[in-house]
## 1
Amino acid sequence: MLIKEIMHRHVRTVEPETTLKQALHLLEEHRIRHLPVTEGDRLVGIVTDRDLREAGPSILEHSPQDDTLHRPVSSIMKREVITAHPLDFIEDAARLMYEHRIGCLPVLQEGRLVGIVTQTDVLHTLIELFGVNKPSQRVEIEVPDRVGMLADAAQVFRRHKANILSVIVHPGSENTRRIAFRTEAMLIDEIVRDLRAAGHRILWPPVEDQEPEGSK
């Protein structure tokens, strides 16, 4: 799935001269946490609710002469902004957010701001892609790291006419892979039995004997 499929196209923005008070009002009014700073359609920075809280006067230190909130956002905005492109993949956006510890990615195309995607957008999309928002069951196995092992295991689900919502493959112990299937089948005992009979080690659901039946 691509960024352009989930990004918000109507982006709330501010100009460098916008005051901190005005920016705070926008965040509260629209219940958002990030404001790209633009000059025309060119991105020049970004300011977040956290930036504004840290820049704002403390309740204990506030005085009638304090004009902190009348400063422009250009005085606190981050100028080096991590961005995405509409044709980037969702998983790449997730990686960027994780690596840089940021909560959003402005989306640029040919240097113009065309959208924004947030951490919440990415998490919601991943939940949908993994199928965990639907009634389903998880079956996880460990297989040798060889070509064709995923297809072999998937054949078991096919024989039981169990629709697979998602498949996640990640490294297991030495020379193995862990494969997590999410299936619409709610009764999975026979699927688990046949996976074990085919020689696969079951990691989930828990089974009393962890040795695959096919290895005996």
## 2
Amino acid sequence: MFLVKALCFIPLSVFHAIGKFVAFLLYHVFRYRRDVVRQNMTAAFPKMSLQEIRKEERKFYINFVDVFLELMKAYQFKKEDWVKRVPLKGADLMLKYLDKGQPVILLSGHSANWEWPAFSIGRQMGYTMEFLYKPIKNARFDKIMLRLRTKHGGVAIPKDSALRQIIKKKNEARIIGILADQLPSIGADKYWINFLNQETAFYTGPQKIAELVNYPVFYSETTRLARGYYQTEFKEVMKPPYQKGGQEIVQKFADLLSDTVARNPSDYLWSHKRWKYDRKQEQQVKGIA
């Protein structure tokens, strides 16, 4: 953490200059996951020309590096920095519930900067921001990331114990943040939903949690205004009562995220192997097992 604390005093403009150079190396020299990025973007946007895809790819690598450099810089931020760099739009929609003691669920995806909103939303709104996370295998790196992510008042909840923790504080007004676009493992409960031009697996967790605790669900859309400046807008997804056994919450989230990505293609996390398997491949694996 000493290194992070030292680095966070470097001006953001210097971070961004370094980031542009690192992005150049990742794209042109090391070719970090370029095949994955190309395959994902081509499948998601079949009408884009190769020239357009390449343009979006280069922008993606700059944005991708920025997320991690800005993560370190944010360690020294105060509330006024968050208000300036990640202004909130539609916060009143959630405050309408929170101010009455009602917890809310906030779904988001890996678009623009998915780290900064997790830091800033709770600080700006005056309510605790809890977020579900999967511990990193490297214990030392996991400890550093948790320190960064909880520095501004956020509370980390391991996914394996998330439901128990949420129910334990069922009536405590707070924001429960879930990055809901991650790839479920083969065999895990999932919904198959059309997302970015292809059938895509989504975790059932957000739907099941909302049905169990009857919390209203919101979508967090973060848009990059400029390097180091974003806007986070909240949109209501659904509110109780819910129809048990449906998938409407996850379906609507996928639709909203798809719209977000379509407007700003280079901001999505294309280097992730999001479409690692399809429904047919999963069925084959289950059949073998």
## 3
Amino acid sequence: MIERYSLPEMRRIWSPESRIRKMIEAELAWLAVTARAKGFEIAAPVSAEALARRVTIRKVRRRETRTRHETVAFLEILQESVRDKNAARFLHYGLTSQDILDNALALQTLEALGLLISDWKAVAAEIRRLSRRHRGTWMAGRTHGVHAEPITFGLKMAGWHAEALRNIARLKRSAEEMGYGKFSGAVGLFGALGPADERRALGRLGLRPEPVATQVIPRDRHAECMAALALSAMALERFATEIRHLQRTEVLEVEEAFHLGQKGSSAMPHKRNPVLSENICGLARLAKAQSSAALQNGSLWHERDMSHSSVERVIFQDVFLLLDFMLARFREILSGLRVDAGRMRQNLHALRGLAFSERVLLALIDAGMDRKSAYGVVQKNAMRCWSGQAHFSEVLRRDPAVRRRLSGRDLARCFEAEAAGRRAEAIMRRGGVG
């Protein structure tokens, strides 16, 4: 991923140096168990940190030009860097390359998931703040882009908050699914030691043994993780799309912060565009597209082929970097979001009360009119309101069929948005922002 759309901490997690460090950690975990099983002590133990200074990505890549095999190049440099000859001799004992690579990928993914979970929690906190602040800010709810019924902006934010919580839970489940490793050799049947040794070695890494591995960890785990990341991208795209719609000039109910010195167009000095939200929508397309590649990685030949490897080198790094950046950017949007409560009220009443049509319908039914007749009466008067200038309540008062069923006070109550406030509060509590 290009540096423009990535942040330092996530770049560190997915850097070549971090990957080498995780590979060293996996080799040392297995070496410690091998030494115990073989009954020897490592005379000069070396830390992963110290070895990482000797086993550099530059050395590995230079050696790979000769070996034409990355893991063999890594292993040769590692063996040369371990001074204890017995330890060097038993490095990688009974293992295959993928034992090291899959464990390293799992460790990187778990660290990256932890960072995304923290990112989402920060975003959820901003959404919760907006929801509470605007619990009484009424606006037009819209379906098909057309005014439907009144809602509060706080309620809209509560829906975002509930989705944010689902994404946090989803990423936590992904961490559970990705927390598996293997030291079971070329086809999963152990080349040297056994399942108890594997369990001990993986325990040192904070991983659990894959119940039945081949040469690799089954790729359904990785596909599920990528699907969770795609759903996070989808949520951010949904939120950002809503901001873009609400910032349209004809609506202008919310607006991204526009800073001193900022420019909106090289040609039109007046422009204040929702560029950050647009950016998130564009990046979401990239993040979501990668989940398809992860699904295709599941059908490997027999006990494994290598077709997944090149794909995973790209998609894991790119999607994690993208999401980390998108979450930070969306938090920035929320922290500076301008909410125009006056404009929301103005837009809500632009259709002169038509947003309350269902309440009139239900009031007529409660007053004894059958549903079909009540619907016909309300729709007939709504169409008159669409084509005229009078308020919907006034048009209804002129209709004898309405006057026979509803008093002036009954009809007025149908147009009180605040009457639904208690229900909005209850729903907000369900969304975790009570």
